[in-house]
Design a protein that fits this description.
With about 260 residues, this protein is of the alpha/beta class. It is about 45% helix and about 15% strand.
């Protein structure tokens, strides 16, 4: 258990794995999960950012480790899951957050390399993670997995076909795994964040300054989310307080998909 943690915290005593943990929603999730009592294994491709975040968490009295890994590579994911089990004795929760965006472009102009890059991380990556996380959870009686999709997994917008396809696929994988492993005590759910402050969206807004105003005008809550707001929803779904929530997608989008 995390040093000095509150036994009533959402994730007290749990071992959690978080992918895409070097920045944005993933880094926010690392801080939230630790605050809520989890011992964390942080996974991403960028070691300097992972090392800095891990040191921050340890300095605050939390149990944290990192594994440099690419979720599109099966052997990398297996190594990360094995590291979580080796360090903390089990894997209770996983937040499969790693993902990449796509350059807006009409579908007929997309090339195969761009398609493969998005699908390999956003779909194969989630599939890889779930396979190995489920393997670990089956040995200890269950756990909870949360996959990060997007509002793009619920609705479509122009010139983002590959990203939309990938995020819809995440929801299909979520539902399939939820049905298949519920009887073995594994809950699988997804979140669908709306516009959230991150490297991805900040770069998009920098290139297209008009985008931010469009985003602000298109939701009942006219602002861009802080990554911590998204991380809080993932922490709750990973916790025992969401014990009867299975195979669902929680929209965390300021009401954007209610339009």
């Amino acid at each position: 258990m995390t040093l000095g943690s509150n036994k009533n915290a959402l994730l007290a005593g749990k071992s959690a794995l978080i992918t895409g943990a070097s920045a944005g929603i993933g880094a926010a999730a690392a801080r939230v999960f630790c605050r809520e009592g989890a011992s964390v294994t942080l996974v991403a491709r960028r070691e300097p950012q992972l090392a800095e975040l891990t040191e921050e968490l340890r300095a605050a009295g939390h149990q944290a480790q990192y594994v440099v890994a690419d979720v599109s590579r099966t052997e990398d994911v297996a190594r990360a899951v094995d590291a979580a089990v080796a360090a903390y004795g089990r894997l209770d929760a996983a937040f499969n957050n790693a993902g990449v965006g796509a350059t807006p472009k009409p579908m007929h102009l997309l090339d195969e390399d761009a398609y493969d890059t998005v699908m390999d991380t956003n779909v194969r990556g989630v599939w890889n993670c779930m396979r190995h996380e489920i393997r670990a959870m089956l040995t200890t009686g269950g756990g909870s997995i949360v996959n990060n999709s997007s509002t793009a997994g619920l609705v479509a917008t122009p010139v983002t076909a590959t990203y939309i396809a990938s995020k819809h696929a995440v929801l299909g994988l979520t539902k399939a795994a939820a049905c298949e492993y519920a009887a073995q005590g594994i809950r699988v759910n997804a979140i669908a964040p709306g516009a959230t402050r991150s490297e991805m969206i900040d770069a998009w807004i920098k290139e297209n300054p008009e985008v931010e105003e469009i985003l602000l005008q298109s939701a009942p809550l006219p602002r861009i989310a802080d990554p911590t707001e998204i991380a809080e929803s993932a922490a709750w779904l990973c916790s025992d307080r969401a014990s009867f929530v299975l195979g669902t997608t929680l929209s965390v989008d300021g009401g954007w998909t209610t339009r």
